Amino acid sequence: MGTLHDDVVIIRPSEKEGDPSVITVNCPDKTGLGSDLCRILLFFGLSIVRGDVSTDGKWCYIVFWVVCKPATRWELLKKRLVQACPSCSSASGISYYRSELQSPKPPDVFLIKLCCVDRKGLLHDVTQVLSSLELNIQKVKVSTTPDGTVVDLFFITDTRELLHTKNRQEETYKALEDVMQDAMISFNIEKVGPEITACCQASPYLPSAITDDIFNLEMSNDLPSVSLTSNNVCVTMDNSLSPAHTLVQIVCQDHKGLLYDIMRTLKDYNIQISYGRFYIKQGRKCEIDLFIMQSDGKKIVDPSKQTALSSRLKMELLQPLRVTVVSRGPDTELLVANPVELSSKGRPLVFYDITLALKMLNTCIFSAEIGRHMIRDREWEVYRILLDEGASSSIPRRKVEEEVWKRLMGWE
User: Fold this and answer.
1) Which end of the chain is more exposed for a tag (fewer CB within 10 A), N or C?
2) Sign of the CA dihedral running 392, 397, 403, 404
3) 356 and 309 in a common domain
4) In a domain, 2, yes or no
């Protein structure tokens, strides 16, 4: 079975405002494909309101109904979706994800050093430019000097793999200059080797004081993730309706990246979806039906495995990220933890949403740092944002937590 390259991804933009656009993917199957596609849609700011997926074990057919932004770059989106799909020559059999076998060449890392005059919302404006250029922030260090000068260090990779060229660097400089205008003092971009990135990496383990702040109680009612959403996440499993598959039914409230959170969890468990449906009802209530099987091609019959998967899905849907604001002596620190897939991919645009929420709160960022850390036998991307002392003191801690959480969940 084969298909023309142009038919791998077909996008039909909505003809009427308010109606969803339709994205169809028709390609060879692999475990984790749904997660990879949902992550791309999330990166482009699309909300999935309905989805259908089916596969015969070799070939899959996926349809997403999405609500898009007016400025969605459809051709670029199609290109990224096609790149995520296996080639037609791989349709001889399904490929299951094995982290130890996944060893692609790591992308080149570049350092962008910006020196500029500080102002409210500056960091978000820079982050927005980098995102629009498809420059992925791997790590950032931001510091403010007493005279109001900001030094930003962005360690980034380029989705287009062109940042080593003069034209791409000039494009980046021009885009940043346009948004920063007279605030820019100096700009430099250079490729850095592994020895530089290694020196700038944070320790893989965080102090217990920080992990206790983010993970002190898995389901604490004090956490904004629970107080702002419904606790009623229902996950049920049934082996009686299919001779070859386990049916997983999920009922929960919608949030940004919901389908991605489900798909990345199943990908980490190396579980294949043979058929699935996802749709949002009135009141943002989501219903998901998934017929799944393990990597050995069998249904999940072990009660302990069922319980582990069910508990993990519930946790990921209630708290796909962790958000808290803590006092560090006279300082106020915002902490956000984002789980990393076994394939080393993290949730996209988290830093973008954090900086946007703080910009909306008219709160300045004194310093910021992103690092990956092992917490409870799992890798997390941790964002540590030190808020400006003057601005943060006038905004209640709870208000900052809730506004950041709502922005991350798409409830703004």
Assistant:
1) N
2) positive
3) no
4) no
